[in-house]
Amino acid sequence: MEQARALLKKLYGYERFREGQEDVIRNILEGNDCLVIMPTGGGKSVCYQIPGLIFEGITLIISPLISLMKDQVDSLVDMGISATLINSTVSATELRKRVEDTINGKYKLVYVAPERLDTPLMMDIVLKCKISHIAIDEAHCVSQWGHDFRSAYLDIHAFIRKIPTKPVVSAFTATATPHVKEDIILQIKQQNPKVFQYGYDRSNLQYFVLKGVNKKQFVLDYVSKNQSESGIIYCSTRKETEKVYELLIKKGANAALYHAGLTINQRKTQQELFLYDHANVIVATNAFGMGIDKSNVRYILHYNMPENIEAYYQEAGRAGRDGETSECILLFSPQDVQVRRYLIDQLEEKEPTYLAHRYDKLQQMTHYCHITTCLRKHILNYFGEDHPDYCGKCSNCSDEMIKEDVTIDAMKVISCVLRMKERFGTASVSEVLKGSNNKKIKQNRFDRLSTYGLLKAWTLSDIKDFISKLIADGYLEQSTDEYPTLCVTNLGRSVIKQEVQVIHNQLIAREIVPIDGLFERLRALRKRLAEEAGLPPYTIFPDKSLREMCQFLPTYKTAMMNINGVGEVKYEKYGEFFIDIIQAYMIEEGYEIQVPTHTTMPTISKKVVKKSTEASAIQSAELFVKLGSIQAVAEERALKIRTVEDHIFKAYEEGYKIDLTTFIPSGHQEIIEAAIEKAGTSKLSPIKELCPRDITYNAIKAVIAIKARSDRPTR
Ligand code: ADP
Ligand code: MG
Ligand code: ZN
Fold it and tell me: For the chain, which terminal residue's Cβ has fewer other Cβ atoms within 10 angstroms, N or C?
């Protein structure tokens, strides 16, 4: 295991194994067959790659997707590991060469498509090389119960039997249903495999269900607020993907499009636009995503509700493989349920129990969109795992949601539906509430209804959105015939009786991660280096590494090597480019640049680096108390004013007694207070937006801190 840990550090640049990795690796190395169930992004690849590097013989990795294989091999090669792949994209001569090289010991990791196993060239490898280990990635593909069934996976066992050396067989999947689990063991015929199953929770993902929002508007806002982040928008039909795609393109977004109606070449181009960060968002049907390993997908928007929770969790799970905070937002509308029903009705398969099974799952998905308890808990319970009642991050437990009491407006709409005898649809009801003056209204004498014009001040489309929200929340119901009419549910009736309140949860589209100047620069550098290397940017360094660089500001080799994800080979290739940018940034911002104090020092731990900035902060604070002005401290210490301000704030937060009014130039306090009144204090940037330009973040922070102190009850 020592060796395994050393490889993790040296090649991958990771400090320690994640949950499970160590156990799995140990077992594989000891020769035990393993079935490993680990959530997406859990780090399965490392579990078979590291044993592959340690075993004396070759590790064959069976992987279903060509794009996935290429990605993995490219990123292994970039780490300095020699690996190769064998699939239908490789020419016959090149194949011959790769097989020869493998036989001559050039490669320890060989990726192969299941369709290629039963070929003379593979048999050549099997007979002439020692094969120590077979790893089967995405192993749920052997199961007809999963949705990614691949018939070639059924031949894996026959292939393994032909291998004279009796290799260890490991299988990996993120699908945990018992059926699939049994199928894998049965089909691959592993020898008493050790089964490892790890928590299904993806704690860095935030789940939201938003009902009855204006989807187009939301998507436009959201994508533009997050234009430097990668995201996927899933729609239920090809037509819908094209609509959303057009909408985004028209507004100047950098979007790509993916559905099964495109040619293979078009799909490849679109997918690459996304993988290589040329397009930040891809609008797709569920045909997209399997085998996409892009680790920095920051959001998944479901423009329509998926058919079942399994599909939802899998699609949502494509966000945040790198472990960084990411958002999964489902935009629910009642029509989505109808579309899903229709799609099931169109299936060729007509076997009644099978269809009932699909309807049942659809029902559970719909139910998920309506619950008011923790979404994370609900999903995990669905997959048979426990979770506390409250996660603090989903749309039902997060305080980021704006809760709005709309009972009065809801009463207006509901009574209008009743007055119209529950015989009309959304369009007519909206016209009446708006107080429109058309023929139909006149004919039906709707203008004499007491509810006529009750929502005069609203736009028609706002009224329609509001009605669909009430439908989504179960206050109204829409019939499913050709001309859908609205009727009031029992829940709706209790609103009229003033027995229940109607509260709407809203999420304002916002930045998932706040913009950080240095991060943007590092990201731009990464993209340039990736272009030169012909690799997707996230394979150079994951976002997480860039974030750590922003936090720890490494400016020399040992410090850089302490960043998670920076291994030796990566450092040699890219380290100094990143150091240059960090240094330039620090000089501009007036930070002190740290260098190792003597060259024999082996490593400087992050703690030391962090502590020394803390020490520096305290030094500034003490000087400040003595000299009484920030300017004076800055001169004394030859630092930028902003740096000194940051120091003093840090000291204040640590409990130093400091008079914060120094941060607030005269006249600014009132302006800032007025802005706080409007924007609240949960985030700084909205306050800053309301203030004149010359007001600094630190001045705002000072006003908030002073306010917090005076708001505190005194005894
Ligand atoms: P999976 O195949 O289980 O979905 P991957 O193998 O693609 O997950 O790994 C997901 C991400 O986690 C990758 O960016 C990988 O480099 C990273 N990772 C894997 N192991 C570790 C570790 N021990 N420490 C930090 N990051 C890791
Ligand atoms: Mg994987
Ligand atoms: Zn929750």
Answer: C
